[in-house]
User: Which sequence fits this backbone?
């Protein structure tokens, strides 16, 4: 599938697959900003895409996230087909600390740097759902069991 992509910055890196068969394309940070309130660090990619209608872009953290103090804020980002802005990754930093003396927020030492691969983009088709309201749903083996009901 061909997807239109636009570099918003000359340092932007076009997302690419690391290996044949990979589902996610690696995205590279070209900027890093710590929020004034210190609640998150945001990485810009300098990339905007035109995802075809009927498809969605999903942004995920890379497995290397486990080597950092970062947690992707919304866990999975949704890039709708109508969005044309920059794809950004917003992380909470579990080691973010506030120095009251200097009034500066410090990011943990294990945060990503500009130029690092910071996440992955996966583009998938999705069905357009039409709801049909009913008073009863069919039975299933699981029924209404949730939150660990399928075993230990």
Assistant:
């Amino acid at each position: 599938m061909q997807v239109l992509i636009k570099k918003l910055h000359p340092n932007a890196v076009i997302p690419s697959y690391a290996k044949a068969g990979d589902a996610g394309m690696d995205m590279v940070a070209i900027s890093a900003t710590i929020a004034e309130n210190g609640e998150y660090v945001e990485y810009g990619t300098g990339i905007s895409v035109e995802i075809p209608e009927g498809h969605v872009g999903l942004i995920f953290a890379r497995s290397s996230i486990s080597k950092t103090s970062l947690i992707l804020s919304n866990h999975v980002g949704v890039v709708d087909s109508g969005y044309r802005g920059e794809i950004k990754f917003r992380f909470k930093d579990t080691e973010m600390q506030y120095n009251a003396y200097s009034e500066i927020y410090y990011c943990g030492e294990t945060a990503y740097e500009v130029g690092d691969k910071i996440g992955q983009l996966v583009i998938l088709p999705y069905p357009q759902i039409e709801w049909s309201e009913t008073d009863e749903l069919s039975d299933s083996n699981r029924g209404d069991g949730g939150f660990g009901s399928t075993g230990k």
User: Anything to note?
Assistant: Residues 29 and 114 are 5 Å apart (CA to CA). The domain at 4-125 is CATH 2.70.40.10 (Deoxyuridine 5'-Triphosphate Nucleotidohydrolase; Chain A). The two ends are 41 Å apart (CA to CA).
